[in-house]
């Protein structure tokens, strides 16, 4: 059992499946991690966040093993672990969190203070997030396992729903966090920017939270067609009518109660010609325009501190042309940052197990083999309406 293979970032536009080291109970600083477990990876998903790195839009180094969306089976248990056993099936929050620092104690696990010497917050397989080895692989190490891992209560039932449960490591809690922070409740009118997996997860979460109407916007007509198929209203921002006009056509007024940015810094501009070019502040500015006074704006979409591929020198350091005065004038609240997955994953697991949430269908989970990861990355990057889930050991195939 000493071999391991994983998806490695090679350079802009290029990933490869390579032989990598079998994980050890050791942290990135080389300290023994008796609080950790080794997982045999059952499912690991490709994320829009990975694409920022693979497109060369971050300072990710070549050789990085990718993968922060992980579901697995415990195969080795560190001597300090108390609550997990070999054979347990678990969901791994993409945040690496120590469970001991003031942030973790307050459930702000997205900004744990002990897992990344460079800044608050750690994650597996991600640039600037502490050097934890990614899980788009056959095996991976998870530290502070008692704290981090969510154990599925019934293995057989979990395997039946595994295509849905794999979304608990990131996109479902992330979309839900976006909806919760935007203040979605019964009867809310909601706009979600972005019809990628996170946008669709936010829309599904808004529906679960009781929204009256959920409108999803994108510049990609194929993704919008899929969003309509799974029950959401849509606006096409590659058309020349403005977002406010298109919302007014649907709602009779140009504003919504709650808005969620599920796009981030690689946003396209709006309109026929605008959508051909990148305009990183478009979503933030348009959300301030269409969110009612005193409304809340959830911003799970990623904004970076350094973007070597940005069009101008300010954006290269994460400075965008945001019309903050508009949001200020309307008394808006803004909610940013990495999602603290642990705040939500247990309840969302129950919602899945009790058929309240068909997330796999909503995001169109598409299962591939580990060796198909490079083509999965390329296809996802082309904007297909799919959420690619890697099945490194054929477990999902066998369970289907
Ligand atoms: N905060 C977190 O913890 C967290 C977690 C997961 C993902 N994310 C981020 O969420 C974002 C979405 O992730 P994803 O996997 O769905 O990515 P994705 O790239 O598949 O989807 C983004 C979508 O936005 C669309 N888009 C571009 N410009 C737009 C505009 N002006 N208006 C509306 N739509 C526009 C694109 O066409 C695309 O369909 C990414 O930035 C990702 O890094 C954040
Ligand atoms: Zn992700
Ligand atoms: Zn911590």
Automatic annotation (TrEMBL):
Keyword terms of this UniProt record? Metal-binding, NAD, Oxidoreductase, Zinc
Q: Which CDD domains match?
A: PFDH_like
Molecular function per GO: oxidoreductase activity; zinc ion binding
CC cofactor: Zn(2+)
Domain Alcohol dehydrogenase-like C-terminal spans what residues? 197-264
Q: Is Metal-binding a UniProt keyword of this protein? A: yes
> Can you tell which superkingdom this protein's organism belongs to?
Bacteria
Q: Output this protein's name.
A: Glutathione-independent formaldehyde dehydrogenase
What protein family is recorded?
Belongs to the zinc-containing alcohol dehydrogenase family.
- Annotated InterPro entries: ADH-like_C (IPR013149), ADH-like_N (IPR013154), ADH_Zn_CS (IPR002328), GroES-like_sf (IPR011032), HCHO_DH_non_GSH (IPR014184), NAD(P)-bd_dom_sf (IPR036291)
Report the residue ranges that make up the Alcohol dehydrogenase-like N-terminal domain in this protein.
35-153
Any matching Pfam family: ADH_N
NCBIfam families attached here?
fdhA_non_GSH
Zinc listed as a keyword: yes
Q: Which residues, if any, are the signal sequence?
A: none
């Amino acid at each position: 059992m000493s071999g391991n293979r994983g998806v490695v970032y090679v350079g802009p536009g290029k990933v490869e499946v390579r032989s990598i080291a079998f994980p050890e109970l050791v942290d990135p600083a080389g300290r023994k991690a008796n609080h950790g477990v080794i997982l045999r990876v059952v499912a690991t998903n490709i994320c829009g966040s990975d694409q920022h790195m693979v497109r060369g839009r971050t300072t990710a180094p070549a050789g990085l093993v990718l993968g922060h969306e992980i579901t697995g089976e415990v195969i080795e248990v560190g001597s300090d672990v108390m609550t997990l056993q070999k054979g347990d099936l678990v969901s791994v929050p993409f945040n690496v969190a120590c469970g001991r620092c003031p942030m973790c104690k307050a459930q702000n696990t997205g900004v744990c203070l002990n897992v990344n010497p460079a800044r608050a917050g750690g994650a597996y397989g991600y640039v600037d997030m502490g050097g934890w080895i990614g899980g788009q692989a056959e095996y991976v190490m998870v530290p502070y396992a008692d704290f981090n891992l969510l154990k599925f209560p019934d293995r057989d039932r979990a395997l039946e729903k595994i295509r849905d449960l794999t979304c608990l490591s990131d996109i479902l809690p992330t979309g839900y966090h976006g909806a919760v922070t935007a203040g979605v409740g019964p009867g809310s009118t909601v706009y979600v920017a972005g019809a990628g997996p996170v946008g669709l997860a936010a829309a599904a979460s808004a529906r679960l939270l009781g929204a009256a109407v959920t409108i999803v916007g994108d510049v990609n007509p194929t993704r919008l067609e899929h969003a309509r198929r799974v029950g959401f209203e849509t606006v096409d921002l590659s058309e020349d009518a403005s977002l406010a006009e298109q919302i007014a056509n649907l709602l009779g007024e140009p504003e919504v109660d709650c808005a969620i940015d599920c796009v981030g810094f690689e946003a396209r501009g709006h309109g026929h010609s605008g959508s051909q070019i990148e305009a990183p502040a478009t979503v933030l500015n348009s959300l301030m325009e269409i969110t009612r006074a005193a409304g809340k704006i959830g911003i799970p979409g990623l904004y970076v501190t350094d973007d070597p591929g940005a069009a101008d020198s300010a954006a290269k350091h994460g400075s965008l042309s945001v019309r903050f005065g508009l949001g200020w004038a309307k008394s808006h609240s803004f909610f940013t940052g990495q999602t603290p997955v642990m705040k939500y994953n247990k309840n969302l697991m129950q919602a899945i197990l009790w058929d309240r949430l068909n997330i796999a269908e909503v995001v169109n989970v598409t299962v591939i083999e580990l060796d198909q990861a490079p083509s999965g990355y390329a296809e996802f990057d082309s904007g297909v309406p799919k959420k690619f889930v890697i099945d490194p050991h054929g477990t999902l195939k066998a369970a289907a």
